[in-house]
Amino acid sequence: MLRTYSKQNKLKPLLKWAGGKEKELKYIIPNLPKYFRNYYEPFVGGGSVYTSIKSKKAFINDNSKELIDIYKIIKSTERNVFFNALYEIVNNWKILESITENNKLFFIKLYKKYSDNRIYILNIKNQLCEFILKHFKRLNSIFSSVFNFNADNFINEIKINLIRKIKRMKELEIKKNKLSDKDILDNIETAFKSAFYMHFRYLYNSDKKYNLNKDCSTAIFLFIRNFAYAGMFRYNSKGEFNVPYGGIGYNKKNFEKKIKYLKSDGLQQHLQNVTIENADFEIFFQKYSL
């Protein structure tokens, strides 16, 4: 018997993935049985279809080790390190918001002087360096626990991203209109969060250098996968991931909600009867051929 499709009470994909079928589920699900004895999926990706079906047993596969590590860790009963790492990212994200909010008058006043040509970019650089020195302890403490790797790189990213963003804001004003105080602060917050993202992108590309354990490296992968521009995942000729931060629209993205879903009993139960493989699809089919 075929089934009708409803968004009610269905599980969601684990993450956004290239070629994801979430938008096509309204066409796919009505053409599937209501229940499978055995369900096989050689290219599971984010799991849009897998999380929407019921089966006695499931066998899922993908050639991306980083993706499959997420499935395996979430299914595991030993996943505390992974989720603790994710919650540290969330907490640090909130710290960056508070730094922007608590110093809003400083940033608004500084930018408006630059916008009105009362000071120049060299003055901006000097005052931002003073700001970073003044708040160095607070900024440096962001990485005092799980991700205590090369915090100096993060501080440097803050300098780079703030200067770049402030220059870009003025260019946009010349082409369009003056920014409101809210727009100024949104852009400053974006600079801080872009710096944070870029630091984690650096850690992702340097995981062997810092000997990151699987739980922490998988947490980083999940974070940058959620906050990369347009959900893209692109690598340069050196094999380094090089997609920038998503921008202002990503500042308020609810990553904590995503984490709670990954910890949910519903998803955990759905994963209990699944065999998870990381192989070429032909090998997967050969192993589980009927």
Summarize the structure.
This protein has 290 residues and is mostly helical. Helices cover 53% and strands 6% of the residues. It is elongated.
Characterization of the model:
- With 290 residues, this protein is mainly α.
- The protein has a domain at 82-259.
- The protein is 53% helix and 6% strand.
- A 3-stranded parallel sheet has the order 1-2-3, covered by helices on one side.
- Helix 3 packs antiparallel against helix 8 (181-205), helix 3 runs antiparallel to helix 10 (255-263) and helix 8 (181-205) packs antiparallel against helix 9 (214-227).
Topology of helices and strands:
Blueprint: H1 25-28, E1 36-41, E2 55-61, H2 65-75, H3 80-102, H4 104-115, H5 121-134, H6 136-140, H7 151-175, H8 181-205, H9 214-227, H10 255-263, H11 265-270, E3 274-277, H12 281-287
Parallel strand pairs: 1-2, 2-3
Keywords:
mainly alpha, elongated, 12 helices
Roughly how many Å apart are the termini? 22 Å
**Would you report the number of β strands?**
3
Helix content: 40-55%
Instruction: Catalogue the unreliable spans.
Output: none
What's the helix-strand series?
HEEHHHHHHHHHHEH
